[in-house]
Specification:
Elements: H1 2-20, E1 46-49, E2 53-55, E3 58-60, E4 62-65, E5 68-76, E6 81-86, E7 102-109, E8 113-119, E9 129-133, E10 141-146, H2 165-170, E11 172-179, E12 183-192
Antiparallel strand pairs: 1-3, 1-6, 2-5, 4-5, 5-12, 6-11, 7-10, 7-12, 8-9, 8-11
């Protein structure tokens, strides 16, 4: 009887985790849905790239916060800073987001920054499609960022993309957060509609 109960709970939990990543809802994944190693909404790779002066300077941004993890980084100085999130939890992976409506993100930021959608075929360089991530004044908020093409643009300072936004969606390797001003960032959730990252 107990075995059946345990199996039933496991089945319900697994179904709930799959369903959660199939819907554009703002809530972050429950601890049971997370990976066995540190992750936020099953995203395990939150990385300081070493570009720009940041704390930490390189490596993982993930830190323990009670029964969950947060990704925290501070941008210093008036220069471009770069933080990377791999959507498939490894550099070689990519995801087809062409049918996705967008993503929910729970975060706090003391100044504006941008998030770039970087495709596998055009990963390097700053000339990418991006959208504004507004400052929250340091308060934690949850916002939806649409994949509607009209919501994405590019910055002359970083260069015009040589690829279309549609192609970036179809072979998305990662999100890259970039900002040119001092900023304190704290990420608590990032869930892409229809995309369930594989745990590694």
């Amino acid at each position: 009887m107990r075995l059946g109960s345990v199996f039933g709970r496991a089945t319900v939990t697994a179904f709930a985790c799959v369903a959660a990543f199939s819907l554009p809802i703002p809530a972050t994944a429950s601890p049971a849905c997370e990976c066995s190693t540190p992750s936020i909404d099953r995203l395990q790779q939150w990385l300081a790239s070493g570009e720009g002066t940041t704390v930490p300077a390189t490596g993982s941004l993930l830190v323990r916060d009670h029964d969950r993890y947060a990704a925290k980084v501070t941008f210093l100085n008036a220069e471009w800073h770069v933080v990377v999130v791999w959507l498939g939890n490894q550099f070689e992976a990519q995801a087809d987001l062409s049918q996705s409506s967008g993503f929910w993100m729970t975060y706090s930021a003391t100044d504006d920054l941008y998030v770039q959608l970087r495709p596998a075929s055009h990963w390097s360089g700053g000339d990418k499609w991006l959208t504004l991530v507004p400052s929250t004044g340091g308060k934690r908020v949850t916002r939806f960022f649409s994949f509607s093409p009209g919501k994405w643009t590019w910055l002359p300072e970083l260069g015009k993309p040589s690829h279309t936004f549609a192609s970036a969606l179809s072979e998305a390797r990662g999100f890259v957060f970039v900002g040119k001003t001092p900023n304190r960032l704290d990420f608590r959730g990032l869930r892409v509609d229809g995309h369930r990252p594989p745990c590694l």
